[in-house]
Design brief:
This protein is mainly beta and 160 residues long. It has one helix and eight strands; from the N terminus they run αββββββββ.
Length: 160
């Protein structure tokens, strides 16, 4: 058989598989299901409304293994944005349910907060995903405590 013809036939057979592997999350239903791990997420985004600066906010995301094999989810360790730096691993057997809890310390935030925690899974249909938290962080300092700077003013320290 001609090598060029063989390469062309192989390309035609593999092209649909490559397309299905790169589908965005909104088109995941088009992928053929297998008996492998089957990650099912509830909502992947949560809006926690208005919170006080310095509060530890916590969002809970339900997760289920709808496949026929063990599902392993790895959280990517990150000390950014007040998120815990401890690595996260969750193992679910077929049909098992659990929750992923994302906590953020808001002491370093003020105003609009949008944080995406990245996770990796052994599910060939959903190899990685983000869980997103949104909130508005209000300052704990009162407006009267924050005086605008005066032009030409100097700081003076008094000692007893």
């Amino acid at each position: 058989m001609n090598p060029r013809l063989l390469v062309a036939v192989a390309g035609l057979l593999l092209a649909p598989a490559a397309v299905f592997m790169c589908l965005p999350a909104s088109l995941q239903f088009l992928r053929p299901r297998s008996s492998a791990s089957g990650l099912e997420l509830g909502a992947a985004r949560q809006d926690l409304g208005t919170v006080r600066q310095g509060a530890l906010i916590r969002a809970t995301f339900p997760v289920r293994n709808a496949g026929g094999r063990r599902l392993i989810i790895w959280g990517q360790a990150d000390d950014c944005c007040g998120q815990s730096e401890n690595p996260y691993v969750l193992v679910l057997g077929p049909g098992e349910r659990s929750e992923i809890v994302v906590e953020i310390d808001t002491s370093r935030w003020h105003g609009q907060l949008r944080h995406a925690a990245r996770y990796t899974a052994n599910d060939p249909q959903v190899p990685c995903f983000d869980l997103t938290i949104r909130a508005t962080v209000e300052s704990t300092r009162a407006a009267a405590d924050v005086a605008p700077p005066v032009a030409g003013a100097r700081e003076i320290t008094l000692r007893k």
